[in-house]
Write a structure and sequence with these properties.
Elements lengths: L23 H8 L5 H9 L17 H7 L19 E6 L12 E7 L5 E6 L5 H16 L6
Antiparallel strand pairs: 1-2, 2-3
Length: 151
C-alpha cells in the first residue's frame, strides 16, 4: 500500500482479490430500513412485496441494528445547587478573540454565582492577568455582600 492506494504488480505470479458477498436476506433487511427479520419473513409468507426473493430463516448479525438498540442511562436528575450566596462560583476565561474590544482586550473572564445566577465579566488584555482579576473580584464581592467565598 502506498499512501491511500493499493498497488497491483502484474509481474507477481500470485494476486489476490476478494469480493464482499451479501445474501438476499441482508440486502432486503437493509433495503427495507432494517425491519425486524420476522416481519420480513411474514411479508414474504403473505406475499405483500412483489419481487421479494427467497429470504432465509436466519439473519446474520447486523451492526447497525445492534447500535440502534443500545441505550444510555439517563443523567441524574438531582444536581447539587448552592443554598447560599458565594457558596459556589463558576468561572471561565474566554479568548483570544481575533477582533479586540474597544480598549484592546482580547480576553474576558466570567464569574457566575450558582445561587443567585449573577454574572460578572472582566475584560483582559493578556491572559496572565487572570489571577490579579480574580483577587480583585474576590475582594470586591466579599466587601459588597458581607459574605466570604467558600473554598
Amino acid at each position: 500500500m502506498r499512501g491511500k492506494s493499493f498497488s497491483l504488480d502484474l509481474m507477481k505470479e500470485e494476486q489476490a482479490a476478494y469480493t464482499a458477498a451479501m445474501t438476499n436476506t441482508e440486502t432486503w433487511h437493509k433495503r427495507l430500513g432494517h425491519f425486524h427479520h420476522t416481519t420480513i419473513l411474514n411479508m414474504q409468507k403473505k406475499e405483500l412485496v412483489r419481487g421479494l426473493p427467497h429470504i432465509e430463516l436466519n439473519l446474520p448479525s447486523c451492526k447497525a441494528c445492534h447500535f440502534g438498540k443500545q441505550a444510555k442511562l439517563p443523567f441524574q436528575k438531582k444536581a447539587w445547587r448552592a443554598n447560599m450566596k458565594l457558596q459556589l462560583i463558576h468561572t471561565d476565561v474566554v479568548g483570544p478573540h481575533k477582533a479586540p474590544s474597544l480598549n484592546r482586550s482580547k480576553y474576558y473572564i466570567v464569574f457566575i454565582d450558582n445561587y443567585t445566577r449573577m454574572c460578572w465579566i472582566y475584560f483582559l488584555m493578556f491572559k496572565s492577568k487572570v489571577v490579579g482579576v480574580f483577587f480583585k473580584f474576590k475582594n470586591w464581592i466579599e466587601n459588597q455582600s458581607g459574605l466570604r467565598i467558600k473554598f
